[in-house]
C-alpha cells in the first residue's frame, strides 16, 4: 500500500516549504521536522538531527520519510559532519528501530560535481558515473547514498536517493537551464520515489525534462516519474543577460558550477 503518513525533515527550508504545499494533494499526511520553527505549523517537531529521543518520537508510526534536513551549501567539515553525516545516520537508526520501510533521501548533483560538464542536451551523465564530490557538502551526500545502500542490504530499508539539480520556482542561471527541477516535478518525483515498488536502494537524478539536460533521467522515469516541465522558455532571457557557458571559465567547466571554484557557504 502507498505510504500515507510521511515524516518530512527540513520542513522549514526552501524545498521543505514548497513540498509542504505540493505533497498533501497526493494523499500524504505530513509530519514536519526541522531545527528551526516551521511557519504556520505549530505541530512541527522542532529538534536537531543529533537529538535521538526527538527522532525516535518523530518517526514513530510513519510509513515513510522524506529526508531534506541538512546543511545545503558548503560549510566547515565539523558542521557537515554533525548535520549531514551524523544527522543522517541518526535518522536511519531511528527508522530502523521503528521499522520504517522507505526513505527518500535528498542527495545532490554536488556528489558528482567535479564531473566535466557534457554537451547541453546530451543527457550523457549516467547515475553510475564515479562520485566526484566538489565540496565537503557533496561528500556528505555521497555518504548519505552509501548509508542508504548499507541500510538496504543490512536492514531492508528501501531508499531512493535523488541527486537534485536546482529546485526553485524558476531557473535563475544558464547552468540551471540544464539541471532545473520545477517544484511541481519535484513533487511528482518524490511521489514516484515513495510509491514505486521494489526500489531497494536506487539513485536517480532529479530534474525536469529540460531541453539542455546534462544527465540521464531514465532511472527516475523507471520509478514512474513523468516530468511535465522544461526550463527552455527561460533560456532566451537568461542567455541574453548572462551569456552562454564558457568552456574556458573554470566555474563553467564542471557539473557543480561555482561549487567547484568558490562554493556558496552556509550562513549559520
Ligand atoms: P535549506 O537550507 O533551505 O533547508 C534545509 C533545512 O534543514 C533548514 O530548514 C535547516 O534548518 C534544516 N536543518 C539543517 N541542519 C539540521 C539539523 N542538524 N537538524 C535539523 N534540521 C536541520 O535547503 P533546501 O534548498 O530546502 O534543500 C533541502 C535538501 O535538499 C537539503 O538536504 C539539500 O542539500 C538538498 N538539495 C537541495 C537542492 C535545491 O535545489 N534546493 C539541490 C540539491 C540538493
Ligand atoms: C545544491 O545542492 C544546493 O543545496 C542548492 O542550494 C543549489 O545550489 C543546487 O545544489 C545547485 O547546484 O544549484
From TrEMBL:
The entry assigns this protein to a family as follows: Belongs to the NAD(P)-dependent epimerase/dehydratase family.
Instruction: Tell me which SUPFAM superfamilies the record gives.
Output: NAD(P)-binding Rossmann-fold domains (SSF51735)
Full protein name: NAD-dependent dehydratase
Q: Which UniProt keywords apply?
A: NAD, Oxidoreductase
Record InterPro entries: Epimerase_deHydtase (IPR001509), NAD(P)-bd_dom_sf (IPR036291)
**From which lineage does this chain's organism come?**
Bacteria, Bacillati, Actinomycetota, Actinomycetes, Kitasatosporales
Specify one Pfam family.
Epimerase
Annotated NAD-dependent epimerase/dehydratase domain ranges read: 6-168
Q: Which domain of life is it from?
A: Bacteria
MF terms (GO), sorted A to Z? oxidoreductase activity
* UniProt entry tagged with the keyword DNA-binding: no
Amino acid at each position: 500500500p502507498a505510504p500515507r503518513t510521511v515524516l518530512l525533515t527540513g520542513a522549514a527550508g526552501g524545498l521543505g516549504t514548497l513540498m509542504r504545499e505540493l505533497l498533501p494533494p497526493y494523499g500524504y499526511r505530513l509530519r514536519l521536522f526541522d531545527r528551526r520553527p516551521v511557519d504556520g505549523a505549530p505541530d512541527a517537531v522542532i529538534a536537531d538531527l543529533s537529538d535521538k529521543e526527538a527522532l525516535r518520537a518523530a518517526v514513530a508510526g510513519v510509513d515513510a520519510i522524506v529526508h531534506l534536513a541538512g546543511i545545503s551549501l558548503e560549510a566547515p567539515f565539523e558542521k557537515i559532519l554533525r548535520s549531514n553525516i551524523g544527522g543522517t545516520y541518526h535518522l536511519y537508526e531511528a527508522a530502523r528501530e521503528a521499522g520504517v520501510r522507505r526513505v527518500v533521501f535528498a542527495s545532490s548533483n554536488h556528489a558528482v560535481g567535479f564531473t566535466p560538464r557534457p554537451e547541453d542536451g546530451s543527457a550523457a551523465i549516467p547515475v553510475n558515473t564515479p562520485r566526484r564530490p566538489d565540496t565537503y557538502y557533496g561528500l556528505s551526500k555521497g555518504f548519505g547514498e552509501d548509508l542508504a545502500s548499507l541500510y538496504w542490504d543490512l536492514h531492508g530499508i528501501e531508499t531512493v536517493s535523488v541527486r537534485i539539480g536546482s529546485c526553485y520556482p524558476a531557473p535563475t542561471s544558464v547552468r540551471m537551464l540544464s539541471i532545473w527541477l520545477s517544484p511541481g516535478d519535484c513533487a511528482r518525483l518524490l511521489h514516484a520515489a515513495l510509491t514505486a515498488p521494489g526500489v531497494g536502494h536506487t539513485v536517480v537524478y532529479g530534474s525536469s525534462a529540460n531541453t539542455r539536460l546534462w544527465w540521464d533521467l531514465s532511472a527516475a522515469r523507471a520509478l514512474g516519474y513523468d516530468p511535465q516541465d522544461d526550463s527552455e522558455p527561460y533560456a532566451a532571457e537568461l542567455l541574453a543577460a548572462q551569456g552562454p557557458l564558457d568552456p574556458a571559465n573554470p566555474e563553467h567547466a564542471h557539473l557543480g558550477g561555482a561549487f567547484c571554484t568558490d562554493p556558496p557557504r552556509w550562513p549559520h
